[in-house]
Design goal:
The structure is a single chain. The chain is mostly helical. It has helices at 3-12, 14-24, 28-45, 55-74, 82-86, 94-107, 111-121, 126-133, 137-160. It has 2 domains: 1-78, RNA polymerase sigma factor, region 2, helix turn helix motif (Rna Polymerase Sigma Factor, Chain: A, Orthogonal Bundle); 80-163, Winged helix-like DNA-binding domain superfamily/Winged helix DNA-binding domain (Arc Repressor Mutant, subunit A). 16% of the residues are buried.
Length: 163
């Protein structure tokens, strides 16, 4: 893959990078630094892209791995105060509030659980997620079920607090 083709693919799929940075990295300066690091890692690893999956899937996994590695190195485990997220001013559309609460719940998860639910919501199969994390599909299924229960419980509690 040449430089032109690589840059074209990165530009076409940069939304994937921004999506993951938005979920994992709250600081704008850190986002910029990590975006550059992801692109650098992608450039260094471009010859390892074997087209067994789409470029977007490959970039997603590389981006996620780079973000999580960076967070581990820095020792930054960011937890979001879910109660603070719920006390935000009322939003016009109830659906938007549900989406915001869902993202607040996801942001409050530890990195492994956040990775599982994010990849699940982004359409990865359980087998793909399990392979990425190095766990069995059965183990992943149990974890995913628990994460969904935790999020559902929190969303129900939030909705009951509105009445």
């Amino acid at each position: 893959m040449g430089e032109k083709e690589f840059l074209h693919l990165i530009n076409a799929h940069q939304g994937t990078i921004f999506h993951l940075l938005g979920l994992y990295v709250p600081d704008p300066a850190d986002k910029d630094d990590l975006k550059q690091e992801i692109i650098l890692q992608a450039w260094k690893s471009k010859d390892k892209f074997r087209q067994e999956s789409s470029f977007n899937t490959w970039l997603y996994k590389l981006s996620l791995y780079t973000i999580l590695t960076s967070k581990r190195k820095q020792g930054k485990i960011q937890q979001v105060n879910l109660e603070a997220a719920e006390s935000l001013p009322a939003i016009e559309k109830p659906e938007q509030r549900q989406v915001d609460l869902l993202y607040a719940c996801i942001a409050g998860l530890d990195d492994v659980n956040k990775t599982i639910i994010t990849m699940h919501l982004d359409g990865f199969s359980n087998a793909e997620i399990a392979a990425f994390l190095g766990v069995s599909v059965n183990n992943l299924g149990v974890k995913l079920h628990r994460i969904k229960e935790k999020i559902t419980t929190h969303l129900k509690a939030s909705n009951h607090g509105d009445r």
